[in-house]
Amino acid sequence: MSESGQHRSILIVDDEPTLRMAFSLALADEHTRVEEAVDGAQALLKLSERAFDLVLMDLRMPLLSGLEAVARLRARGNHCPVILCSAYLTVDDALLALRYGVVDFLAKPVELTRLREVVNGVLLPGSGPMWNALDRARRMEFHEALATLLPVVAEDEEIRIWLETFRWLASPDQQQPGGFFDASVGRARVERLVLAS
């Protein structure tokens, strides 16, 4: 990941040209280079050619959906942070996205201020237990993410939701085939997380 003052690169993947342009204009600056892809297949090609610090990926696209692209990316061993964007995010999509290590969700239409906040939260080094826990979760280290938040007095609702989600993701049941999709408690927790975003 790029340090402060160095260049960072973001890949924006969406089949809507207007949205790609708006995201590019909002994020590009002297320290941030932005590239675009029109679908998941083109994104995978670009990601095979060079490394990116972050991918903003639309969920629903022709040819190859965002989740299918993330699944193929992870199968290749690439754990580049991915933020999923969608106007139609379901709980099942959110559960699958978390399993693939998607680091955050943005609901369309996306306010550009919120876009910058989420992107900076992923790309800029932070401090404190919440940042450290999310950093571990981005690397699919759910047990470590849970251990980082357990000592924190969770008066903040967002921290409580993440704590419960990490606890659920780190549970032995989630390591079993089908466990990730069969737990109604986990679905409710992720549903609250998605609705809070």
Notes on the protein architecture:
The chain is α/β, with parallel strands linked by helices and 197 residues long. The protein has two domains: 1-125, Rossmann fold, CATH 3.40.50; 126-197. A five-stranded parallel β-sheet has the order 2-1-3-4-5, sandwiched between helices. The protein has ten helices and five strands. α4 (91-99) links the parallel β4 and β5. Helix content is 51%, strand content 13%. The chain starts with 7 loop residues before the first strand and ends with a helix. The radius of gyration is 16 Å and the shape is globular.
Q: Taking all residues together, what is the mean pLDDT? A: 78
Strand content: 5-15%
Helix content, binned percent: 40-55%
What is the number of independent domains? 2
The CATH homology group name of the largest domain? Response regulator
Give me the oligomer status. Answer: single chain
CATH domain topology of the largest domain? Rossmann fold
Distance between the termini: 24 Å
Q: Briefly, what CATH class of the largest domain?
A: Alpha Beta
Q: Count the E strands.
A: 5
Shape: globular
Uncertain segments are 1-5, 175-197
Strands across the major sheet, in which order?
A: 2-1-3-4-5
Sketch the topology as an H/E string, one letter per element. Answer: EHEHEHEHEHHHHHH
Q: Secondary-structure blueprint of this entry?
A:
Blueprint: E1 8-13, H1 17-27, E2 32-37, H2 40-49, E3 54-58, H3 66-75, E4 82-86, H4 91-99, E5 104-107, H5 112-123, H6 129-138, H7 142-149, H8 157-170, H9 179-182, H10 184-196
Helix pairs in contact: 2-3, 4-10, 6-7, 7-8, 8-10
InterPro entries: Bact_response_regulator, CheY-like_superfamily, Sig_transdc_resp-reg_receiver
Keywords: Phosphoprotein
Modified residues (4-aspartylphosphate): 58
